[in-house]
Amino acid sequence: MQKVAKNILFFFIVVITFVVFGQIDKNFSAEDVTSRSKAILNSIVEQVRKTQKLPVMVDNETEWTSVSAGNGEFICKYKMLEANAENINKNSFIVLMKKHLLSSGVCGKGNNKNAVLARGIDLRYMYYDKIGNLIGSFTITSQDCGF
């Protein structure tokens, strides 16, 4: 599970934060993004869809299947290709994934703060098993990151 979390984090930070969210800084004012308007979130989602060509494999066990916008959240959905939700301790899985993402830099640091989180848009991660049953989800907020 730690390998999956590490690979998801690496993929998310490298590809999304620096490629996509870097573009958000250039294309949207802070006022537009912090308004949490559905139109702005949908624009961010479309940028990700254009650059990422989802679904994409994160590692040999995890597929990043989609992104969407919802009520002030940027939502990323993942499918665990070998997992069965009935056989997973869901609470432990979610706690481990969130803790690992937070400790591994999803928030960014100093002047390189995650552009989406810094503007008050939350990141929601949703994980599904191999047949589409929800394993669990969690949200990372700017408060989780200390800004």
Fold blueprint:
Elements (H helix, E strand, L loop, with lengths): L1 H26 L2 H5 L3 H15 L3 E2 L4 E9 L2 E8 L9 H14 L11 H4 L3 E7 L5 E7 L1 H4 L2
Parallel strand pairs: 3-4
Antiparallel strand pairs: 1-2, 2-3, 4-5
Give an overview of the whole structure.
By secondary structure, the protein is α+β, with helices and mostly antiparallel strands. It has one domain (2-132): 2-Layer Sandwich (GMP Synthetase, Chain A, domain 3). The chain has six helices and five strands. A five-stranded mixed beta sheet has the order 1-2-3-4-5. β2 and β3 form a beta hairpin. α1 packs across α3 and α1 crosses α4 (90-103).
What distance lies between the first and last C-alpha atoms, to the nearest angstrom?
A: 28 Å
H/E element order = HHHEEEHHEEH
Just name the CATH architecture: 2-Layer Sandwich
- Which structural category do the helix and sheet elements fall into? alpha+beta
Question: Short description, anyone?
Answer:
The chain has 147 residues and is α+β, with helices and mostly antiparallel strands. It is 46% helix and 22% strand.
Features:
5-stranded mixed sheet, alpha+beta, about 150 residues, 5 strands, about 45% helix, GMP Synthetase, Chain A, domain 3
